[in-house]
């Protein structure tokens, strides 16, 4: 069994992981930083971000207080005001750094940044690079990492579990059970051996879990591994019921997965939601029409589809300037044309798809989890910024802001933490079962169906109860398989997906109200006394 040592182990190479690595490396060139990616280093949600990154950039036209108000309004009274303040106010400086590290954002004819608008924003404040903002940020961050000698990246390494130990302590009134993290067990996907990676500090930057649903904009890597790892290690997770469905993914009758996103920026640019027969409908749901926050728009579309018995609604862009549209949305145009739709002549068929996890690993304002020496950053974390519904383009911003804060903490604490040399090797067991892959594939399919039918945009008590019963069975079967089979990333992902499905459903069953992204027909009203759901 091989044992490796590093100072800082960061699992994930999206905006959260890469930014944490760069910020730490810049503050502490003496620390050895190891980044881990389960596939190619650029494959992650960040790479697919289209719309952009929100930041108050033009102080003559915008105001941080407006961005704060928009974020809280979208979050439906569940945002943590301290965190909203931090992210909005520190955000522009982090965006400036992204630019300094080589990120390109589009400019207008007068060489000013072209600030776009998305749902729920009261001003134009989204910096973007065409409709490929995430790919551009990922490129620039990877390039910056390559210039820093104390960062190394392990690709095709799958983190199975964080390494933790419980230390019992006694206070006058109660027994303390403190959990400490000492690194992670990584499955080397080249030789399928498990390696022990000891670290003084570990950071989970593993992204969301969109893959628990049938229709999702998230790539296949989004299996919620970090959230499941932390929950297995007995850390705290919160607000998992707030799963954001993006209103407009491209309707594809062939069930292409992941679903291709039609950016909200298209609506910010003037695209209008209509039914198949060309009728506008958003005036029935919100005065902000097609640019209302996502929870409202996605639920409106869901209602229209169910009452009309149709498979999709449409986004009408036929009235927009074709040249400007092509300059801003070249990828979207190309994708639509590749399936025979010309958005300048026909309406684009769209449906909601699972897009983002507002909840996740509970962290404080420095990204600290409930486990010592373990941080979480980016979509896998729950900072309190998004509340019950994330404001568009606030996710990349949150990742960049918290990366800086975590790096600051790490650089101060690292000297006081020693490696734990008494960590046991990974306990290898099980045999290879040729039937295993079929069982895994089938169980993933079942999980997606359970989550999509019973814990989707509209929920009810009977649906969540049904989901919990079925998930329990799936969990028991998978645990049996896990303990009798050779380890594979697919099997680990299945376990993690089931855990995430359970966490979403359990949190949904506890929240007896409707708020933001969580809508339960048995409790259609908001209950202002309810706060975060913590498991
Ligand atoms: P990710 O970028 O998803 O990175 C996760 C990393 O963790 C990957 O490197 C993965 O390999 C690694 N990983 C996971 N599990 C393991 C494991 N077990 N072992 C090893 N490595 C592991 N947000 C915005 O703010 N603006 C937008 O315009 C926008 N557009 C979007 C468009 C699309 C199509 C999608 C899907 C999302 C969009 N979002 C947008 C949301 C945003 O992109 C994500 O929330 C954000 O990029 C998440 O970054 P992250 O670093 O936390 O995770
Ligand atoms: C989009 O471009 O619509 C996605 C923006 C986001 O998820 O924040």
Mind explaining what this structure looks like?
This protein has 535 residues and is of the alpha/beta class. The chain is built from 14 helices and 16 strands. Strands 1, 2, 5, 6, 7, 8 and 15 form a 7-stranded mixed beta sheet that branches. Strands 10-13-12-11 form a 4-stranded antiparallel beta sheet, with helices on one face. A 3-stranded mixed beta sheet has the order 9-14-16, covered by helices on one side. The longest helix has 24 residues, at 461-484. It has 3 domains: 2-241 and 358-416, FAD/NAD(P)-binding domain, CATH 3.50.50; 250-352, Alpha-Beta Complex (Flavocytochrome C3, Chain A, domain 1); 436-486 and 488-510, Up-down Bundle (Methane Monooxygenase Hydroxylase, Chain G, domain 1). The two termini are 34 Å apart. It is 35% helix and 18% strand. It is globular and about 65 Å long. Helix 1 runs parallel beside helix 5 (133-145) and helix 6 crosses helix 14. The mean pLDDT is 94. Bound molecules: flavin-adenine dinucleotide and succinic acid. Succinic acid binds at residues 50-51, 263-265, 356, 392-393, 395.
């Amino acid at each position: 069994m091989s044992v490796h040592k590093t100072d800082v182990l960061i699992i994930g190479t999206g905006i959260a992981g890469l930014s944490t690595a760069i910020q730490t490396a810049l503050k502490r060139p003496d620390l050895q930083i190891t980044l881990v990616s389960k596939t190619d280093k650029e494959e992650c949600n960040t790479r697919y971000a289209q719309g952009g990154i929100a930041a108050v950039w033009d102080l003559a036209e915008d105001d941080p207080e407006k961005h704060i108000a928009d974020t809280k309004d979208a979050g439906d009274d569940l945002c943590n005001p301290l965190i909203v303040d931090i992210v909005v106010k520190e955000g522009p400086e982090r965006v400036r750094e992204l630019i300094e590290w080589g990120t390109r954002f589009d400019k207008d004819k007068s060489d000013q940044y072209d600030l776009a608008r998305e749902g729920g924003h009261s001003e134009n404040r989204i910096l973007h690079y065409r409709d490929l903002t995430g790919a551009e940020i990922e490129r620039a961050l990877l390039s910056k990492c390559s210039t820093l000698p104390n960062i190394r990246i392990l690709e095709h390494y799958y983190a199975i579990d964080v390494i933790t130990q419980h230390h019992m302590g006694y206070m006058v009134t109660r027994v303390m059970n403190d959990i400490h993290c000492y690194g992670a067990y990584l499955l080397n996907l080249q030789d399928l051996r498990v390696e022990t990676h000891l670290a003084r500090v570990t950071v989970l930057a593993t992204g969301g879990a969109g893959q628990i649903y049938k229709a999702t904009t998230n790539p296949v890597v989004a299996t919620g591994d970090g959230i499941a790892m932390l929950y297995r290690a007995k850390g705290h997770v919160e607000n998992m019921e707030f799963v954001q469905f993006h209103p407009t993914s491209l309707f594809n009758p062939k069930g292409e997965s992941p679903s291709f996103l039609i950016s909200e920026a298209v609506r910010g640019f003037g695209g209008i939601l209509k039914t198949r027969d060309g009728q506008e409908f958003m005036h029935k749901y919100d005065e902000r029409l097609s640019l209302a926050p996502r929870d409202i728009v996605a639920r409106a579309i869901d209602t229209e589809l169910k009452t009309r018995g149709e498979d999709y609604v449409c986004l009408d862009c036929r009235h927009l300037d074709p040249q400007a549209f092509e300059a801003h949305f070249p990828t979207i145009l190309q994708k639509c044309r590749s399936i025979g739709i010309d958005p300048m002549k026909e309406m684009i068929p769209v449906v909601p798809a699972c897009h983002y996890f507002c909840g996740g690993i509970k962290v404080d304002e420095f990204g600290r989890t409930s486990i010592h020496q373990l941080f979480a950053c980016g979509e896998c974390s729950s900072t309190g910024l998004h509340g019950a519904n994330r404001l568009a383009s606030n996710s990349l911003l949150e990742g960049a802001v918290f990366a800086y804060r975590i790096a600051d903490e790490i650089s101060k604490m690292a000297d006081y933490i020693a490696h734990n040399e008494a960590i046991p090797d990974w306990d290898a067991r099980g045999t290879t079962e040729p039937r295993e892959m079929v069982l895994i594939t089938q169980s993933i399919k079942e999980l997606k169906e359970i989550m999509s039918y019973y814990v989707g945009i509209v929920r009810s008590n009977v649906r969540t109860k049904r989901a919990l019963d079925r998930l329990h069975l799936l969990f028991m079967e998978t645990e049996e398989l896990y303990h009798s089979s050779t380890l594979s990333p697919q099997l680990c992902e299945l376990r993690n997906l089931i855990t995430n499905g359970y966490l979403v459903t359990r949190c949904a069953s506890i929240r007896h109200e409707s708020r933001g992204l969580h809508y339960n027909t048995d409790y259609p009203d908001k209950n202002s006394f309810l706060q975060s759901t913590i498991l």
